[in-house]
């Protein structure tokens, strides 16, 4: 029964459709050559013996042209080598695959929609710190904040915003439900995964009640992220309940790498005054109501005050593009924000595929923190599949005496990413980085802390999908109360994690070669 359920699942059908399309393209190429060979044999019999040689030469020239094109293309260096190998090995078929899958750039129409929404967002009056003020407030960490604030409209630094850190889904969920109950004007939710179960049922019950009270509720979930979690037309089910619901980028069975541009964010905004983000999706394993991979370790950050404005802007930006309209931002901003006496700075930020976002800001944040650290950098991530730049930043920090530690899962949720994660251990260990595995189960938190001063919490994994393809978000914090709690959480998590040794990182020759091959093509997917 379980096998039949998987076979007839939407994910299986989508995967099968893509495979069939690829096979049809290959078959079309082969049939075209056979037909052309027959035509030449009939009408130009003298040229028929040279047909195969001519095809080989033409294919070789075309492949060589595209290899040169790939080598000189403005793209992430780690993606060039696998495409060159694909073209060299598969020749004209490799060229076809390259033309179809090498670009994850959103369509021109979608880029124009983002530009229109951005223009509307930039017309809003932002209270921004000057670079001098940032450096005065944050010292050497001001450069990390400044690098964000100059590029995206929502990446604004705020003071006087209250922060609360939740080291587990269970701690988050109780406070989250209480805040939803307090909503008076609107609740906006944007999540990669929504799955029917105990967690979502409790949330949906509150949303339905709030709608009856006149509260506006919007929900956006990622179509591919929710495959197998909810049914195909679940957005219509929610609309019937009065929820303004959209699927982010509904899957269409065409061959394109744009399908990799998923909305991996986890954002809730309540009345523009309270905001949440972090690693938590809305499914039962995130609050340990179920245990598919041992104990699920996750986290969330709660903002209250003016800093919530940026989370609101991020949500409206994504939602407006999906519905093809531009909201009046001022309509959703509170008349006044309460100012809290909490010291420090918070800076929510978004990230996404090029050219919607001109740089990979999430990776920049990590590298800038590593470059500025003096004492330690602690990192938690479910996946460790990194490029050369981030690997070197980790190693260089460790070599100059910074205590660099990374926590990864001990029990995987996906076997291939887990193998790729472990395959990166040895190079980092040899560079002085300490690797820990969270022994009770799976750690899904995306977290970075340095020198008791700066931290970032959000949705960004240390892998290519988060850095290159997904829409992500995070909150950079400097000397807020949440930073203290994050330090406590790391200390407790280290006690439950096993320090890995070089002996642990060694695997048999076959395993190492499989991982090397997988690492080669990891940047493409």
Keywords:
single chain, 525 residues, alpha/beta, Endonuclease, Chain A, 3 domains, 9-stranded mixed beta sheet, 7-stranded mixed beta sheet, 20 helices
CATH topology of the largest domain: Endonuclease, Chain A
Which band does the percent of strand residues land in? 15-25%
Helix content: 40-55%
First-to-last CA distance: 31 Å
Q: Briefly, what CATH class of the largest domain?
A: Alpha Beta
Count of discrete structural domains: 3
Largest sheet: 9 strands, mixed
Q: Name the CATH superfamily assignment of the largest domain.
A: Endonuclease Chain A
- Cα Rg: 25 Å
Provide a concise account of the structure shown:
With 525 residues, the protein is of the alpha/beta class.
Layout of helices and strands, plus pairs?
Blueprint: H1 2-7, H2 10-43, H3 51-72, H4 77-101, H5 108-122, H6 131-138, H7 142-149, E1 158-159, E2 162-166, H8 169-181, E3 186-191, H9 198-212, E4 216-222, H10 234-240, E5 244-248, E6 266-270, E7 274-278, E8 295-297, E9 300-304, H11 308-323, H12 329-332, E10 345-351, H13 361-372, E11 376-380, H14 388-399, E12 403-409, H15 415-423, H16 425-430, E13 434-438, E14 441-443, E15 447-450, E16 454-458, H17 464-469, E17 472-478, H18 481-495, E18 497-499, H19 502-505, H20 509-521
Helix pairs in contact: 3-4, 5-11, 6-7, 7-13, 8-9, 13-14, 15-20
């Amino acid at each position: 029964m379980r096998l039949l359920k998987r076979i007839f699942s939407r994910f299986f059908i989508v995967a099968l459709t893509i495979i069939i399309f690829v096979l049809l393209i290959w078959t079309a190429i082969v049939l075209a050559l056979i037909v052309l060979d027959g035509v030449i044999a009939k009408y130009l019999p003298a040229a028929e013996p040279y047909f195969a040689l001519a095809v080989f030469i033409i294919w070789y020239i075309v492949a060589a042209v595209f290899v040169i094109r790939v080598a000189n293309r403005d793209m992430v260096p780690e993606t060039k080598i696998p495409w060159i190998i694909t073209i060299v090995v598969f020749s004209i078929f490799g060229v076809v695959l390259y033309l179809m899958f090498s670009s994850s750039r959103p369509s021109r129409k979608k880029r124009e929609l983002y530009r229109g929404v951005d223009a509307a967002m930039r017309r809003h009056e932002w209270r921004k710190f000057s670079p001098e003020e940032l450096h005065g407030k944050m010292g050497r960490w001001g450069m990390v904040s400044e690098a964000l604030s100059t590029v995206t409209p929502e990446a604004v630094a705020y003071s006087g915003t209250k922060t609360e850190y939740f080291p587990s889904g269970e701690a988050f969920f109780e406070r989250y439900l209480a805040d939803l109950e307090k909503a008076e004007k609107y609740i906006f939710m944007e999540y990669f995964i929504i799955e029917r179960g105990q967690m979502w049922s409790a949330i949906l019950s509150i949303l339905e009640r709030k709608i009856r009270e006149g509260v506006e509720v919007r929900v956006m979930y990622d179509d591919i992220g929710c495959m197998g979690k909810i049914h195909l037309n679940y957005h219509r089910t929610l609309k019937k309940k009065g929820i303004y619901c959209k699927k982010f980028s509904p899957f269409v069975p065409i061959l394109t790498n744009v399908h990799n541009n998923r909305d991996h964010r986890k954002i809730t905004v309540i009345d523009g005054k309270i905001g949440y983000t972090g690693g938590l999706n809305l499914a039962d394993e995130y609050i340990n109501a179920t245990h598919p991979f041992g104990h699920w370790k996750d986290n969330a950050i709660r903002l209250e005050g003016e800093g919530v404005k940026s989370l609101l802007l991020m949500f409206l930006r994504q939602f407006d593009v999906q519905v093809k309209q531009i909201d009046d931002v001022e309509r959703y901003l509170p008349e006044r924000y309460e100012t809290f006496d909490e010291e420090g700075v918070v800076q929510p930020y978004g990230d996404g595929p090029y050219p919607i976002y001109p740089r990979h800001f999430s990776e920049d944040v990590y590298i800038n923190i590593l470059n500025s650290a003096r004492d330690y950098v602690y990192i938690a991530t479910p996946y460790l599949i990194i490029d050369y730049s981030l690997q070197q930043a980790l190693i260089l920090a460790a070599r100059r005496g910074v205590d660099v530690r990374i926590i990864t899962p001990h029990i995987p949720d996906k076997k291939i990413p887990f193998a790729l994660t472990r395959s990166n251990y040895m190079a980092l260990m040899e560079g002085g980085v300490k690797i820990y595995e969270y022994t009770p189960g799976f750690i899904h938190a995306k977290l970075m802390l340095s020198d008791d001063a700066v931290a970032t919490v959000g949705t960004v994994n240390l892998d290519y999908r988060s850095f290159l393809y997904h829409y992500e978000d995070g909150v950079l914090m400097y000397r807020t109360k949440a930073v203290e709690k994050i330090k406590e959480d790391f200390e407790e998590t280290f006690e439950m994690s096993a320090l890995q040794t070089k002996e642990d990182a060694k695997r048999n020759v076959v395993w190492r070669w499989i991982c090397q091959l997988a690492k080669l093509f990891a940047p493409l997917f």
